[in-house]
Amino acid sequence: VFFVPLISILTAKISSYTMLLIGTAISAGAVFLCFIPESIAESLSHGILGDLIYDYWLGVAVGQRDPFYVSIVIFIFFFTIGEAIWSPRLMQFSAEIAPKGKEGAYIALAVLPYFVGKALAGGMSGFLLTSYTPDGFLSFPDHKIVWLWIGGMAMISPIGLVVFRGLFTRVEENSLSASSHKIAENKILEEKTDENTGSSD
Q1: Residue 91: closest CA among 104, 76, 72, 78
Q2: Which residue, 19, 28, 71, 128, has fewest beta-carbon neighbours within 10 Å?
Q3: CB-CB contact of 154 with 31 (8 Å)
Q4: Cβ atoms of 98 and 116 closer than 8 Å
C-alpha cells in the first residue's frame, strides 16, 4: 500500500523493463533468505526484531520460538519490496509495448500466467508439504527444500528477463519511438490548426 506509490514516484524516469528486472530479482532472491544460517536467525531473534515477531505479532510461547520464524519474516519483507517494484510496472510495460488499440489484450495476456500460477500453486504446495513436512512427524529436517523449489521457480522470471533482454528492450524502444513520433505528428497538426485559425481570423 505504501511502497507502490512511493517507488513509482521515485522511479518514474527508469524504464519499465529495468524495474521489472530489479523487482523480480529482489522478490526471487528474497526466497533464499529462508536459508539464513540458524545462528544468525537465532541472534536476531533475541533483539527487538524477535520481540516484535514472537511477542507482539505471532504470540509464540517461549519454548516454541524457532529461529526460522525470523527468516520467514525477513523473506516476506524483502519479497514485498520486490513486488512493490515490479507489480505496477508489469501493466505499464504491457501497455507500452502493445500496438495501438491492443493495450487491453496485451495487459490481459501479461496477467494470465499469474492466474495459471495460482491454479497450480494448490497442488504444488500439497505435494511439497506431503513430501518434505509429512503428517505425524515432530521434526522436518528437509523443510528448507520446499523453499529451494519455490526459489528456483521464482528465479525463472529474472533469468528470463536477462536471457531475452535484447528482445524486450528492442520492443520497448520501438514502442517509445513510435509514441514520440505520434506526439510530434500531433504537435505539428495542432500548430497547423492554430495557424489556419489565426489566418481565418
Answers
A1: 104
A2: 128
A3: yes
A4: no
Round to whole Å and give the CA distance between 172 and 15: 9
DSSP characters for 52-79?
Answer: IIIIIII---GGG--THHHHHHHHHHHH
189-to-149, 198, 200 alpha-carbon distances in Å: 56, 14, 16
DSSP category for residue 35: G
Helix (H, G, I), strand (E, B) or coil at 7: helix
pLDDT of 165 > 60? The answer is: yes
Q: Which three cell numbers stand for residue 188?
A: 505539428
- Comparing CA positions, the residue from 95, 85, 77 lying closest to residue 22 is 85
Place of cell 528492442: 170
Q: Which of 26, 43, 40 is nearest to 83 (CA)?
A: 26
Report which of 178, 156, 168 is spatially closest to residue 15, judged by C-alpha positions. Answer: 168
pLDDT in tens, 98-109: 877 888 888 888
Please give the backbone phi and psi of residue 115, each rounded to the nearest 5 degrees, phi first.
Answer: -75, -35
**What's the CA gap between 49 and 135, in Å, rounded?**
31
Nearest to 42 by CA among 65, 22, 62: 65
| Least confidently predicted of 1-5, 31-35, 123-127 | 1-5
